[in-house]
Design a protein that fits this description.
The complex is a heterodimer of chains A (265) and B (164).
Chain A lengths: L4 H9 L5 H19 L2 E4 L2 E5 L2 E2 L12 E5 L10 E8 L8 E4 L4 E5 L8 E8 L4 E8 L1 E2 L2 E2 L10 E11 L2 E3 L5 E5 L8 E3 L10 E2 L7 H5 L6 E6 L7 E7 L2 E9 L6 E4 L2
Parallel strand pairs in A: 16-20
Antiparallel strand pairs in A: 1-2, 1-12, 2-3, 4-7, 4-9, 5-6, 5-8, 9-20, 10-11, 12-13, 12-14, 14-15, 17-18, 18-19
Chain B lengths: L5 H20 L2 H17 L1 H4 L5 H15 L4 H13 L9 H16 L2 H11 L5 H8 L3 H23 L1
Classes of the chains: A mainly beta (265), B mainly alpha (164).
Amino acid sequence: MADDPLAEALADLAPDVDASASWATTGRTIRRRRRRQVAGLVVAGCLVAVASVSVALARPDGDGVDLAIYVPTPTTTPVPDELTITCDGGVGSLSTDVVQTNPAGVRVTIDGGEAGGTVVVVAEAEPDDATVFLRLAPRASGGRPVSGDGSSYPPGRFEVRCGSLEDGDLSDSSPPVWFEVIDPGGNYGYRWSEPCVNATRTFVFVAPDELEAALVDTFGPSARVVPSGYRAASPAQLVVLVDDEPVGSAIEFPDRAQYLVMRCE
Amino acid sequence: MTDDGFEQLFRQEFAPLVRALAVACGDPRRAEDAVQDAFVQAHRHWRRVRGYDQPGAWVRRAALHRLVDQERSAARDRHRRRRLAAQPTNEPLGHEHATVARAELVDALGALPERQRLVVCLHYLADLSVDDVAAALEVAPGTVKSQLHDARSNLLRSLEVRDG
């Protein structure tokens, strides 16, 4: 095409591009995003991460705790057409390397573990802008939090913390929230603390760049999550507000359970 | 970043893709953002992407999706292309004839349907084969050929007018 007048004329319009300089810029962007992507939740010193979020639980009595992570079929679009969940790490008898792909509506149960252990749960969604709901809850039977062997959770508080995970350390963490087991033997024997959204007991984790403030300050003054039109018997809609301005679309939830909401970007 | 082959892919694909998309959308910055986003996305999924036969094709598709997803405004694009045409090039400054010619070509590009514009820019500026353009745009090679033919006719006409 060297002698093609059209190719020459078009080439004349194209800007010069310095790939080396762009490589440096892209590297910085990748490293920045990588730090963001491992932001997560920490519970009682244990860490679990999700593709963009992490969660971990440990029982107050020092034993491990069973954690169920649900990925319900999303009720908003775009729906992920591929979803991979990876659990890795952990200590004690914690099952590891659990991988499930394409599980529109999957439940991953992490068994065992010891207090202080680290579990990394990674959820990767395709396409990248798909909305993924992760429901984080103690493993339950009939609404009652139970361990894998059927025993009840001990009373106590389980802390959950949001922040950035870098080199295994949690930084920039939010004030901890917790769920408390108040009635080990009874149905719905646990509750989430303030400042989780009261009515829906919902965690919201939003990853896009423009919502970074909402991520870091999920429970802070500048970002808040507002239940919109919530009624107990109907699906709940949540709206993320930053500086009192709604950001993004309303997110609809099929019930009032605990959710960790992640929008991959 | 030590990821095997990622930097090589970047150095191979980045510049030609940015140049092609810059002319296609009339905004070098937007084009660079789209391509950079595509590479950041590729890096996130590099373990999977590098296993593909043509990781470059994946990046091109991702960049095109980014570009198309961005807010589009025909009027604004036309304005940007005019600005691009007015920018200095390797030609000597004050070369009025060249500037007018660039403006005409930019106008002719702007008058093309978006798909034709992308086809012609990817083919001539990113130096992609018809098959590669088809893969990037997720259309049949025959469609690319016909669009390339139409676009080429329109653009050459504008060049002939200018030269005539």
